[in-house]
Design a protein that fits this description.
With about 190 residues, this protein is mostly helical. Helices cover about 80% and strands about 0% of the residues. It is built from seven helices and no strands. The model has no long low-confidence stretch (mean pLDDT about 90).
Length: about 190
Amino acid sequence: MTTPLAVTLTSVAAGLGLAAACGFRVFLPLAGLSIAATLGHLPVTGSFAWLATTPALIALATATVAEIAAYYVPWLDHGLDLLAGPAAIVAGIVAAGAIPIDLPPFLRWAIVVIGGGSAGLIQGATTMVRLKSGALTAGAGNGVVATGELIGAATLALLALLAPAVAFLGMVAVLAWAIRRWVRRGAGVRAA
């Protein structure tokens, strides 16, 4: 038997896992959320009921395919990174906010803000990896980075839907990596 606390914690973990996955790819986790909501596997809150509709599913699936393909075009991937930062934050907010969580409003909004922030932080760290790859390989290595990001997004999104507690631990690990990247970048700037 599941307790209300266990349901709440599972919902928080699923929402935050999906939000973090948005930092790797903006649309893939939202498409996964839409599939899960459409199939009735994962409920969404009333204001996000549109995610469980066929038009939303088609639009998000189309956007996912376009985003994945675009990251394999060397000059286009850097342009997408400029747009992906704000878009990842918004997608993270949507992913975290769409999952029904039985918490007081202040805590619910804190989860939504954490979701958007984690997506933005991860997206920023992956942008730095792509910039370094572009500089070191003249863009030739960016396909490898794109594949890694795609695997990260798909894995974290699937875990969020199927094993939310594991996804939450994965999110914490990825955030630790992203923070370490930011700290190293700041230390490198000060040393120069």
